[in-house]
Every structure is written in structure tokens, then in C-alpha cells.
Amino acid sequence: MNKSNPIQIVAGAALLVTATLVAPCAFAQSGETVTPLSVRLTECATIFRGLAIIEERNHIGYRSIDLYEQGTADLARAAVRQAGVEGYADPVDTLSPIYTELQERWGKRLLNPADPSRVRGWIDYCRSLGRATGALR
Predict the structure, then answer these.
(1) pLDDT tens across 5-57, in order?
(2) Sign of the C-alpha dihedral, residues 28, 104, 81, 55?
(3) 105 — phi, psi (to 5°)?
């Protein structure tokens, strides 16, 4: 499995290889930009992947690395599924560039957090979102 981008569909089966996110869609209601659920799930997959990489580099327990890797895969699968529900013709092609962009952004944030409590808040948000959508247990 290619762990650098968890969003890929192989032979019609939902196999999470690596996710790349696409820019959030803007909805014309009251001039506000709304980030689609598929993009939020992709961002969370990106964050979990970054945490797995950091723990691997720091030689932290393999159990936690495995949990983050599994979370990455589960969130990416949910993102692809949700993008289909949102009407994207090719959810993988839609989310892959987004994942790549977010991977760069979050790689920097996770390695050198200017505000560790904000990063912790994102991690908590992603866990809650994953549970609320059924992507995480």
C-alpha cells in the first residue's frame, strides 16, 4: 500500500492508499464558503497520517502508529464515499490534489506547532468527526 496518498480506488474496491484533497467548494448561500464534509474528512485523514509519520520518526510505540494508520485509511474511505454522495463524478480525482496540498500544510504544522493547543483541538475535532460519521470507532 502506498502510504503517501491514502485515497485511491483499486479495481473498484475502496482501498485507501493515500488521500489528496481538492479545494473546498463554495456554495452561493449568503456569500459564505462551506467546506464539504468530504474535504473535512480528507483533512482529518491528512492529520492522522502526519501523526503516524511523527510517531514513527520518534520511535514511539507501533501500536499507536498502527492506530493512526488505520484511522487515516478509515477517514480516507469515508471521504471518498462522502464525495460520491456530494455528487463528485470522480471522488478520488477530486480529493487527491486536496490531500496533497493539506499534507504539505499539516506536515509543517505538526512538526513545528506554533500553538500546540490548536493542533490538539484539531486532533480532537477529527476524532469527533470520525466517530460522528461512523468512520472511526
Answers:
(1) 665 432 233 333 333 333 333 333 455 678 999 999 999 999 999 999 988 88
(2) negative
(3) -60, -50
- State the residue for C-alpha cell 512538526: 111
Q: For residue 105, what is its C-alpha cell?
A: 500544510
Residue with cell 499539516: 106
